[in-house]
Amino acid sequence: MANWDKYINEYRSYLRIERGLSFNSIANYIFDIHRLVSYLNDNNVDSSPLDIDDEMIQQFLYFVAGQLSPRSRARIISGLKSFFNYLVFEDYRKESPMELVEVPKLGRKLPDTLSVAEIDALINAIEFTDDGRGERDKAMLETLYGCGLRVSELTTLRISDLFFEEGFIRITGKGNKQRFVPIGKSATKFILIYKDQVRNKMDVQKGHEDTLFLNRHGKGLTRAMIFTIIKRLSKKTALIKNISPHTFRHSFATHLLENGADLRSIQLLLGHESITTTEIYMHIDRKFLNKILNDYHPRR
Length: 300
Hints:
Number of domains: 2
CATH superfamily of the largest domain: Intergrase catalytic core
Strand order of the largest sheet: 1-2-3
CATH class of the largest domain: Mainly Alpha
Shape: globular
Structural class: mainly alpha
Number of strands: 3
Largest sheet: 3 strands, antiparallel
Order of helices and strands: HHHHHHHEEEHHHHHH
Strand content: under 5%
Helix content: 40-55%
């Protein structure tokens, strides 16, 4: 097969060094390129990244159109556009075969949210156990909701990131960008219970000495494990909504907005680079917008 690996590896380095993307973001970009390469292999097409043309790209996109949702297709198109634009930028190609490809129009998907009562029910369903998992899980969910963290930010949280006397924790977000987020009394309380009563007694594996939340083997938790914990609690409480770790982050932002927080402050707390990303929360509760108008506009 034509030499794709060389250019994919160079592109991977570009995403990591030049753009400062996280491991997970880079993996998603590379996965979409490998999907294209697999299609070429399966159809015995000997095209390299330097000579593949727009017609072959369109055939690939027609192929995946029958398998994926519009949102997934849009992600693939965006990823391939980035890859081929990189090749043009590096003078490997004169033009991108993606130039005339249009991204499917997507409706704005509103985030799922939980009520305060539903969050309380999920957290209260966690039982303290002999192996300490209950204390850990309660501390994790209190931190997810109390600080509005991404799941990757939770799994990489370190003991040295805790500044409880000042009332903050240090978060390393996308692109290794750091921010300080206030932490409330409830999350602080349960982290201290876990750290002082459970974690201190664990056999911590080398390389994880500073990792806050550990699995039973003394290593850091995976994103999948957090997802599994939340799914089990959802089933236990008979919650009808389809939730994930990110639901707690959405709920954090929504509840702040509904209680009067301004969008700029929410943006800083969430670590969004652009306020446009944060603005999606403005579409969740129209009653809140009506209240803002009636409370503050001179023509109310």
